[in-house]
Amino acid sequence: MAALELLSDEGYRADGRRAAELRKVRARMGVFAQADGSAYIEQGNTKALAVVYGPHEMRGSRSKALHDRALVNCQYSMATFSTSERKRRPHGDRKSSEMTLHLKQTFEAAILTQLYPRSQIDIYVQILQADGGNYCACVNAATLAVIDAGIPMRDYVCASSAGFVEDTPLADLSYIEEASGGPQVALALLPTSEQIALLEMNSRLHEDHLEEVIEAASKACKAVHAVLDQVVRDHVQEVTALLGD
Amino acid sequence: MASVVLSEAEKLYIVHGVQEDLRVDGRGCEDYRCAEVETDVVSNTSGSARAKLGHTDILVGVKAEMGTPKLEKPDEGYLEFFVDCSANATPEFEGRGGEELGTEIANTLYRIFSSESCVDLKSLCINPREHCWVLYVDVLLLECGGNLFDAISIAVKAALFNTRIPKVRVLEDEEGSKEIELSDDPYDCIRLNVDEVPCVVTLSKIGYRHVVDATLQEEACSLASLLISVTSKGALTCMKKVGKGSLDPESIFEMMETGKRVGKSLHTSLQKILDEEESLGTTRQKVGFLG
Amino acid sequence: MPLDHRRLRGPEESQPPEVWAAAAGAGGAAAAEEEEAAAAAAAEEARDPCALRPLFARAGLLSQAEGSAYVELGGGTKVLCAAWGPREAAAEPGGGAAAGGRLVCEFRRAPFAGRGPRAAAGREAEREAAAALREALEPAVRLARYPRARLAVSALLLQDGGSALAAAVSAAALALADAGVEMYDLAVGCALCRPPGAAAAWLLQPSEPEERRAAARLTVALLPSLNQVSGLLGGGQGGPPDSWAQALRLGLDGCHRLYPVLRQSLLRAARRRAAPSTA
What range(s) does the Exoribonuclease phosphorolytic domain occupy (chain C) (predicted)? Predict the structure, then answer.
C-alpha cells in the first residue's frame, strides 16, 4: 500500500493547507450558566468544551490542600462517540489520565495559584469530536474558560502541535497526520513572555530539526493567541453592552 | 446535580405559587420551558442531537456498529444505552461520582425502550444469527438544571431521527461463505422510524398539585414525582415513581391523564421542529455550541 | 503468547443448547413449544385475574441480623430479607444535604434462583431492583428520626417464581419492622402483568412463565393504612392510561388484601420474642 501523501510536491497537505497554516479556529465563551467559567472551541473538526469551577473550598479530603497556593484539579474526558471507533469509557483509561496530568501541569504554570491559598480550582475538559490536536484544543478551551471564570493568569496559554514531514515542519496536525506515525511535538506557550508551559514530543526526530519544529509550533501558538484574544475581547464587549442597558 | 439549598420561605413561595398555577418563572403548571433542539451536531456519529431545556443541556450521539444478534432474538438488532454524567455538569460527578446516576438513567432508558414497537429492530438485522446493527446511544450530560429525564428522552428521540445507517448487502458465494458489502453511495442509507419512540414526561408533586418540567428549585420542593413515557399516540409505555416521598393513588390517576395530554403535545412540537430542520437539509446553518 | 496451562480455557460466552435446538429441529421442538404456549394460554383462561397466590411470611427467623423476614409466594417465589438498624454513617458523599438518615438497599439473586444462567442482564437488573426497593421503602421509614445514621436492608431472592420484586418489598418492610426501626407503615408490594393481545386483562401476582410472556409488567408498593403509593415501576407494550390506571387499582386492591397476612406474621414474631422472657 502506498503511504498517504502528507505533503504534495506543490507544498499542500492532505486537507489542502499549507505547511504552516492552521485549521479554522472558532470559539465561544460563557456557554453554560451554572459553571463559574466555560468555553467551547472548534479547531477544524476537533471540538472541545471546558468548564471551570472555583476557586472554592477544598472538596473531599482537606489534607490535599496546599497552604501557600491553590490546587489545580483537572479532568480530561472524551465523549464515547467522539472518535471514529466508539470508546467504551469516557475517562479513566491510561491515555486520558496522562492528558489530565499534562493539563494540570500546564495550568499550574499559568494560573496565579499563590493568590488563593488552601483552595481548589477545577478544570474539566471534554472532547466532543476528535480530529487530532486534542491536547491543544483542550488547553485553548480551558484558557478561555479560566478567563471566563475571572481567575488571574500570568498570560494566555496557547497550545499547538507540530510535525515534521519531508524536511518541512507542519503546524497544527490533523488526525491523519498524527496517525501516520511521524514525529509530533505538542507545545503550550505563554505567548507574550514566550515561556513554555509544556513541551512534549513523541517518536524520533533529528536533533538538528528540533529547533525548526518548535519554531513552527510556537508560531502557530501565537496565531492561536491572536484568535483567542479576539474572542475574549468580543465576549467582554458583548457582556458590557448587556450590562450597560 | 448542582445542589440547591432553599430556605423554608423560598419553598413556601414556590408551593403557594404552584397552588395558584403560577410558577416562579411565570409558567403555568403544564408548561414546558423553552426547548432548543438541534440535530447533526457531531459529524463522526451516525446521528446526534443536542437538546437544551432551560439550563439542562444534553448531547446525544448514536453510533451504529456491526455486532452479532442476541441469541433470544436472532433476527433483530438492538440498542445499547450509556449515560455519561460528565464533570461538566457538576464537580460531584468527577471521577466515578456520576456513575450511579448514569446507570440509573440508562436502566430507565432500557425500560422505556423495552416495548417492541418503539423502534423497528427487525430492520437493523443484516443477516439472522450472524450480523446485525447495534445502535450505541450515548448520552452526555453537559449541564443539569432540573428535569433530566424529559430532556434526555427528547434528545434521544431527535438523535434517533437523525440516525442514518449505511445500507449493506450480503453476498454469498458458492461455498456458502458470506461477505458483507457496504454501499458505495453515502446517501444510500436506512432511516429509523421514530413515530413510536416515546418521550418521558416527569410530573413532580408540589403541594396538592403537580407540575411538568420542574426546575432544580422546584425539584427541591417536591417529595415525589411520577415519570411516565408516552408515545405520540398517547399510549403509556413506562411508569415509575421517583423520589423519597409517596403519592396518593388518586393523584397518580390525575398525573397519568396530564402526562398523556402534555406528552402528546410535546411529541407534536418536537416532530415539527425535526421536520423543519430536515427540510432545510444542507442549507441549514449549524449553530452547535457557538450560538 | 504465553498460555496459562493450569486451566482449560472455555469460550468467553456460553450458550444454552435449547436455543439452537429449537431452530435446528424446527419440527418437533417448535411443536413442543407451541403446545407449551397453548397450555399456558389455556391456564390463563382458567385463572382468575384477581386471584392472589397464597403468601407465607415469617419475621425474625435469623439470629445474627437485627431484623429479618422470609416471604414465600405459592408457586415458588422465595425471598429472604435481613435488616440492620441505625449505624453511624461514614462521611456522607455529596455533603450533608439530607438531614435524616440513609437507607441502603441491596438486592441479590441467588445463582440458583432462576432457570438457566441469567448472567447477561444480571448485575444491572439487580441494581435497578435495589434502587426500586429503596424508593419503595424510603417513604415508610421515619428517616428523620435517625440523623446521620445508616439503615441497611439486604434482600436475597432464593427462587424466582414471578413477582420477585414485589415479594422483596414486602419482606424488606417486614425485616425493617422486625429490627425495631420506626416506621409510618408497612410497605406491601404487589406485581401485575398483562399478557400479549389487545384485549388481555391484567393478571395479579403473575407466575414466572406468565411474567416471561407478558407484554407489560407493573410492580406497585403501597402503604396500606396511609393509602399512599410508595413505589411504582412498570413498563412494556404501550397502552392507554386507562388500562394502566385499572392495573394500578387492581394492584392496590391486592396490596390491601395482603396487608393483614404481613401484620399477623409480625405480631407472631413479636409474641415469640416476648415468650421466653415471660416464661
Answer: 52-182
